[in-house]
Amino acid sequence: MSEANQTTERVAGARIGTVETDARDKTRKVVIGYLAKHPKYGKYIKRRTVLHVHDEHNESHVGDIVEVAPCRPISKTKSWRLVRIVEQRSALRAE
After folding, report:
1. Average pLDDT of 41-61?
2. Please, which residues have CB within 8 angstroms of residue 8's CB and are 6 or more apart in sequence?
3. Which of 21, 25, 8 is nearest to 67 (CA)?
4. Which of 28, 41, 62, 85 has the fewest CB atoms within 10 Å, i.e. the most exposed one?
């Protein structure tokens, strides 16, 4: 199936990040990296946001690039859900 035939829905507040940990059941730790400008020196610094994401069917694995969206709080730290797997990189590492 070509990419032109697939429908891509836009989800409000969706972000794209990399799965860092898949050790827990139905939960993934997703890291979103970005660059921030230092207020005084102007140099760009690497920063990251770590999100706890709900993955109902345990589809994603370490290294995958995923799209996540905000949702109602599921637990104390988990208020994001997995929308789709953009790129499966976990299979590439296994080879």
Report:
1. 97
2. none
3. 8
4. 41
Per the structure, the count of domains in the chain is 1
- Domain residues for the domain of 51 are 15-94
Do the domain assignments include residue 26?
yes
Give the up-direction half-sphere exposure of residue 46: CA atoms within 13 A in the CB hemisphere. Answer: 3
pLDDT score, position 14 = 94
Tell me the CA distances in angstroms from 11 to 1, 52, 67, 85, one per residue in order: 23, 18, 9, 14
SS3 38: coil
* Residue 80 to residue 39: CA distance in whole angstroms: 30
The alpha-helical segments, DSSP class H, found in 36-89 are none
CA Rg, the chain, in Å?
A: 15
pLDDT tens-digit map of 64-90: 999 999 999 999 999 999 999 999 987
Q: Which pLDDT tens digit goes with each residue over 9-37? A: 678 899 999 999 999 999 999 999 999 99
In a domain, 8, yes or no: no
